[in-house]
Write a structure and sequence with these properties.
The protein has 183 residues and is α/β, with parallel strands linked by helices. It is 26% helix and 20% strand. The chain has helices at residues 11-21, 26-33, 46-49, 76-89, 112-121, and strands at 52-58, 61-66, 95-99, 123-124, 153-157, 165-170, 176-180.
């Protein structure tokens, strides 16, 4: 589901009219931005990952909002630059990319298609939902191997190739693999 933030104020209608007149729309800007891939996991788009939060258009100007997976994520600079390049190539100028930390990103925002892409790529996707501040906290009992499907796996290191992932080993096929942590 695409969620686009609604423009506010008296200039909103004027901006929407200008966007329609130029053939540009928030939906189009979103679709263009959504083609940008994660530089750390190139099979995922920023839409799959859930970091693409909104797209706004005012004439030829586009503003896109991203939420980093965590505040120090080194991939965000590359994502920002790639969004600007993609939107410039689609005729938007100027392009502004805003980074928003609240609400904090969660793996709950990842799409099901993105989770399937992770598995096919050899990374175990997050399973379950992020813990809420109140209520039941779900514990992960096993991580399914993305290669052979076995649940006989063990965590080797809490941190894998990136801070978002943990390194696991399958005890059946003996292959190491990353697991995208539930955050």
């Amino acid at each position: 589901m695409v969620t686009l933030r609604q423009a506010q104020g008296p200039d909103a209608a004027q901006g929407a009219d200008a966007a329609r007149g130029s053939g540009r729309s928030r939906e189009h800007a979103w679709a263009v931005a959504a083609t940008v891939t994660d530089p750390e996991v190139p099979v995922l788009t920023i839409e799959d990952l859930g970091v693409l939060r909104s797209a706004e258009v005012d004439g030829d100007r586009a503003t896109v909002t991203l939420t980093p997976t965590y505040s120090g994520c080194p991939a965000m600079d590359a994502m920002r630059d790639d969004v600007i390049l993609a939107l410039n190539a689609a005729g938007y100028s100027p392009v502004e990319v805003r980074m928003v930390l609240s609400p904090a990103w969660t793996t709950d925002w990842m799409t099901d298609a993105g989770k399937r892409k992770l598995t096919k790529y050899g990374i175990a996707p997050p399973s379950g939902r992020a813990a809420l501040q109140q209520g039941i906290i779900r514990l992960q009992l096993a991580v399914k191997c993305p290669r052979c499907g076995s649940l006989r796996t063990r965590e080797v290191s809490r941190f894998g190739s990136t801070s978002c992932k943990a390194l696991f080993e399958c005890l059946d096929c003996l292959e190491p693999f990353d697991h995208f942590k539930v955050i």
